[in-house]
Amino acid sequence: MPPLVDLFRLGQLLVLSATLPIAVIAARGYRGTPFGRVVLPLVPITVAYLSIAATKLVAPAASADASRLLGTVAVALMAWTAVQAILLLSGRRLL
Predict the structure, then answer these.
(1) Transmembrane stretches, by residue range (predicted)?
(2) Which is it for the CA torsion 54, 55, 61, 63, positive or negative?
(3) How many CB atoms lie within 10 A of CB 40?
(4) What is the pTM of this model?
(5) Per-residue pLDDT tens for 39-57?
(6) Residue 31 near residue 4 (C-beta atoms within 8 A)
(7) Contact at 8 Å (CB) between 35 and 88?
(8) Does residue 38 contact residue 81 with C-beta atoms inside 8 Å?
């Protein structure tokens, strides 16, 4: 039986795999709208975290550098998404 950590990583991988199509549908549905700028980064953020989870599950020894790089990209995209949401909700960007 695999250790509990591996089971949790597998669960994370399954949840993120189920979330990716929903993020793609949302990004395509809101394309060209001001809210689309907020939703668009959800796809690469989900892909980055899915890649981190898959790398840790498949090759745990080689995952440190990849996790740092993909995690940095995901956090930067989340910050950009937060800025876009603040601009939209504060009224600085027209609906």
Answers:
(1) 12-30, 42-63, 69-89
(2) negative
(3) 20
(4) 0.85
(5) 999 999 999 999 999 888 8
(6) no
(7) yes
(8) yes
